[in-house]
Amino acid sequence: MSEHVNENPESPRSSGTVSTVAPKEGGGFPNPGLPPHVHRQADENPRAEKRAERMVAGLFLLSVLGTVVFIASYFVFTPMGTNLLGEPGTLHAVRWSNLFTGVGLAVAVFFIGAAAVHWAKTLMPDEEWVEERHHIEGSDETREVAAGIITDGLDESGIARRPVIVTAMIAALTALPIAVLAPLSTFGPLPGSKLHHTFWKKGLRITRDTDGTPIKASEVAMNSIFHVMPEGLTEDLEDYLEERAKAATVLIRIDPELGQNQDSLDNGYQGILAFSKICTHVGCPVALYEQQTHHMLCPCHQSTFDVTDGAKVIFGPAHRPLPQLPIEVDAEGYLVAGGDFPEPIGPSFWDLHKDK
Amino acid sequence: MSTTTPTRPSTEAEAPASQGSGDGRMLRLGAVGGDWLDRRVSGAGLLRFMGRKIFPDHWSFMFGEVALYSFVVLLISGTYLTMFFVPSMDEVVYNGIYAPLQGAHVSKAYESTLHISFEVKGGLLFRQMHHWSCLVFMVAIFVHMFRVFFTGAFRKPRELNWLVGFALMVLGMVAGFTGYSLPDDVLSGNGLRVVDGLMKGIPIVGTYISMLLFGGEFPGHDIIPRFFTIHILLVPAAILGLIAIHMVMLVLHKHTQYPGPGRTERNVVGFPVFPVYAAKAGGFFFLVFGIITLISATTAINAIWIYGPYDPSPVSAGSQPDWYMLWTDGGLRLIPGWEFTIFGYTVSLNILLPIVVYGGLLVFLALYPFIEQWVTGDDREHHLLDLPYNAPVRTGIGVAWLSEYLILAMAATNDLIALKLRLSINDLTWTFRIAFFLAPIIVFYVTKRLCIAMQRQKRDLALHGEETSKVVRMEDGQMLEIHEPLNEFDRWVLVQHDDYRPLKAGKGVSSLRAAATSFFFKDRVAPVAPSELREALEHAGHERHRIDELTGGDYTTPDARRH
């Protein structure tokens, strides 16, 4: 193996690019060839071989044991029926079922692998074989024939002589992909003005998200926060979730003295302010309110809004303030919306500022 | 088809010939049904081609296998789940065994996922196996990809297979995202809402794309059935197809091997498919399967009953996607709130810039083989792998890429880091913002210098051999340490690699390329040349001679000699 074998198969058809590869001095070192083989214990010692054989067989048998455990526990540790350790229909039963069937299956599968690998490593030949590589590229003759097939085929098709067909073909192949747009358009409606409006309307009562009850201004304690929805947005509506996704609002009462934004205070009622809960960055619910700082924080990407300043962005990736819902108080003292949000809620989009 | 027969190790080369007359072997072929198959599908030819094919052995070659095998586990467990999962967003009232949610309005998708988890025998196990094997699949793909990157296995002729592997990584992300969105819980629903927000941020067509994907306004009633079709049909079919291409190219190119004595660019040294790899690789499948099953039996994952059914209003702090999607969330957290209006239309840079960064990172990775080829101008086939320290700039670039990836992934967990380490989330975000620009540069430089230091150390080792800790003081006071020269097999690995040199502009080399080659190779450490080694050995021999003369060949300490 002392012949010089350290040459990369260089393409005979070099691209002619100047290469950074430096020539090796004196052709470099000769490859010393495969080192002498060191035999394993099991190759030389019959007792070690026997031991390895028993080991492999033992590992296979462990797998059988695992299979038995798996099958048995599938029927005696069930989530809903028989269960030796947990009351059926409880999470306890589910956990025992998962643990026993899982460990049984894991043992059944793992030890087949362990046995096979141990077999290969201790008992199958461990002397390395040498296989020659072939050139990836075809011989000159093959490449010649291949090129011939292309040129002859093109010639036979007459593509060069029949420009009319070619033009028509290009037209057909260009037109067809446009057809894809037609079925694609049925995947969903056009946006229209949907993104510009929510369920909120002038006079709709502001209700608690949890139980749908209306809220009196007097019930809103200083620095408290309410997660609210418009009255009438109930589960029987066809587009219940879509409307909820837009109408989600938080109601917060701050000391009007702290207010830095008169417009914002004017749209509220005695320091009770209502802001869209949907982040103007990518639309997560801005669910966290820090009472001490009057900041609202989006847990997804940490956009932070200052409630005392018209929910202006003071940190994070959002750009627009949370849109504010104008609020009023009706004759019975309940808080109602003074109208829809003045601008689209949620993530910004291309025609956000166009009236629709 | 191949007609080359691999060289068997010489010790057993001739043994079977005496018993195996042609007839006897044919008989055996018939006995196992081989004859029947051969007459119908050329089974014998296929076996001759594949049966004794040689694959080299190395632990780092197993990551690709882990990816393949965990994909098989994904298919098995996923098929089981489709038997019980209902991909529908129709609303039902939950009345299963999980008490906290009884009476809640949930989608059929969510209800059936709870049903699988709590009421179907073995359902929770298969659900957890499906999710865990997905995480393992993505880890394996990623580690495999960087094994290929750092060893230069993407070089000619394997550039196309690199692209196939890259596509598999991206498809894995798509499969993962569409999969964990299916249960319709609060966590995945908010993930979908983020995707909706990202799409709306695309100029001009954004809102249209969002409406088309969701079949109307978010969340609509279509997204889960649509994702279901993508998740169980389109993406797995594409993955299977690409795996097939990946494997065919692997066989066509034959596997790469690490440099070593007897290993050349023209051969492949290792073990035959049958029986050694049938047992090793086949067994390894069961090992991977078994370990994933054990994790799934003992470790809960994606407990959607704790998150609750999807509702657009709530979200919990600590909302993170699966690990392989983390990096796509990090950029969204780091970007400042940049948005501007042009002719009354809104451009959301706080969405577009992160998308551009993600795209840039991916495209750079995909195109790297072609970039490096352009720089080196190296037109040769490479079947021997580079040791990463022998390619300091490539290794530095790879580690810098990973550092960027990790910073984005860590930024996506900034709220958890802030909570656990009691840090300010704002400081942390600013730290990551700065690190995004600085870390890759620092990491590149440090990695490159470490590689060069290793090259120097290996060079010394090749020239002078191992230090023996035996120091001799000569008569003139000079201290000499005795070195044990390496044997030629051990030395070969240290001296076999190629040397690359920067090019000067002009003569067919553009100034851009000259600058690139300078960036790559100006700090090179030249490999040991044969003449240098001769000189070093001569010098060592001379030194040894002097020491032997002085000590008489006895290197024990004078103190020890007295006893």
From TrEMBL, chain A:
SUPFAM superfamilies: ISP domain (SSF50022). GO terms for molecular function: 2 iron, 2 sulfur cluster binding; metal ion binding; monooxygenase activity; oxidoreductase activity, acting on paired donors, with incorporation or reduction of molecular oxygen. Residues 8-20 have a biased composition (Polar residues). GO terms for cellular component: plasma membrane. Keywords: 2Fe-2S, Cell membrane, Disulfide bond, Electron transport, Iron, Iron-sulfur, Membrane, Metal-binding, Oxidoreductase, Respiratory chain, Transmembrane, Transmembrane helix, Transport. Its main location: membrane. Pfam families: QcrA_N (PF19297), Rieske (PF00355). The chain crosses the membrane at residues 56-76, 96-117, 164-184. Coiled coil: none annotated. It is found in: Cell membrane. Residues 1-49 are annotated as: Disordered. Residues 40-49 have a biased composition (Basic and acidic residues). It is a multi-pass membrane protein. Its cofactor is [2Fe-2S] cluster. The keyword Membrane applies. PROSITE patterns: RIESKE. Residues 272-336 form the Rieske domain. Belongs to the Rieske iron-sulfur protein family. Iron-sulfur subunit of the cytochrome bc1 complex, an essential component of the respiratory electron transport chain required for ATP synthesis. The bc1 complex catalyzes the oxidation of menaquinol and the reduction of cytochrome c in the respiratory chain. The bc1 complex operates through a Q-cycle mechanism that couples electron transfer to generation of the proton gradient that drives ATP synthesis. PANTHER family: CYTOCHROME B-C1 COMPLEX SUBUNIT RIESKE, MITOCHONDRIAL (PTHR10134). This is Cytochrome bc1 complex Rieske iron-sulfur subunit.
UniProtKB/TrEMBL annotation, chain B:
Gene3D superfamilies: Cytochrome Bc1 Complex, Chain C. Residues 539-549 have a biased composition (Basic and acidic residues). Residues 1-24, 539-563 are annotated as: Disordered. Its EC number is 7.1.1.8. GO terms for biological process: respiratory electron transport chain. Coiled coil: none annotated. It is an enzyme of class 7 (translocase). Its cofactor is heme. GO terms for cellular component: plasma membrane. The chain crosses the membrane at residues 66-86, 129-150, 162-182, 202-220, 232-252, 284-307, 342-371, 430-447. This is Cytochrome bc1 complex cytochrome b subunit. GO terms for molecular function: metal ion binding; oxidoreductase activity; quinol-cytochrome-c reductase activity. It comes from the Bacteria. It is found in: Cell membrane. Keywords: Cell membrane, Electron transport, Heme, Iron, Membrane, Metal-binding, Respiratory chain, Translocase, Transmembrane, Transmembrane helix, Transport. Residues 33-259 form the Cytochrome b/b6 N-terminal region profile domain. Residues 1-10 have a biased composition (Polar residues). It is a multi-pass membrane protein. It catalyses: a quinol + 2 Fe(III)-[cytochrome c](out) = a quinone + 2 Fe(II)-[cytochrome c](out) + 2 H(+)(out).
